[in-house]
Amino acid sequence: PPKGRQFDKRGECLYYADAIVGLARICNLPPPHEAASSPKANVELLASRVQLSDGTYSPIHYADDVAIGPKTGHVYFSDASNIPTDKDVYTDRWDVMYASKMEGLRGKCTGRLLRYKPESGE
């Protein structure tokens, strides 16, 4: 489920943080009155993991907010936990509050601020 979202400065793409998959965007959104006659919107997953300084990758477990730099256009987003979102095996639903509850119980701060550069895709 999307947690944080913001349009780019031209208003063409909506960037959003999804607690399960990471950072994504939707482009080519038609105005409501033209939705039936316009081309379909384009949904892209931009980041589900990040490369660390040692060259290894770290998954994004709980993306939850988005802000876009007004001058650079870089997309800043937070990964609130290093605990993966849990799926209830009985209901087949995602428990997006699981990571938050576990962080509270163990008393650690594992969140991080990440950056995505739209011009380079990094």
Mean pLDDT score, rounded?
86
* Strand portion: 35-45%
Structural class: mainly beta
Backbone CA Rg: 16 Å
Order of helices and strands: EEEEEEEEEEHE
Please outline the major beta sheet.
4 strands, antiparallel
* Net shape: globular
Q: What descriptors fit this protein?
A:
about 120 residues, 1 helix, mainly beta, single chain, four-stranded antiparallel sheet, three-stranded antiparallel sheet
Mind explaining what this structure looks like?
By secondary structure, the protein is mainly beta. It has 1 helix and 11 strands. The strands form 4 sheets. The chain has a 4-stranded antiparallel β-sheet, with no helix packed on it. It is globular. The mean pLDDT is 86.
Secondary-structure map with pairings?
Blueprint: E1 2-7, E2 13-18, E3 22-27, E4 42-47, E5 49-51, E6 57-59, E7 63-68, E8 75-79, E9 86-88, E10 93-95, H1 98-106, E11 112-116
Antiparallel strand pairs: 1-2, 2-3, 3-4, 5-6, 7-8, 8-11, 9-10
Concise overview:
The chain is mainly β and 122 residues long.
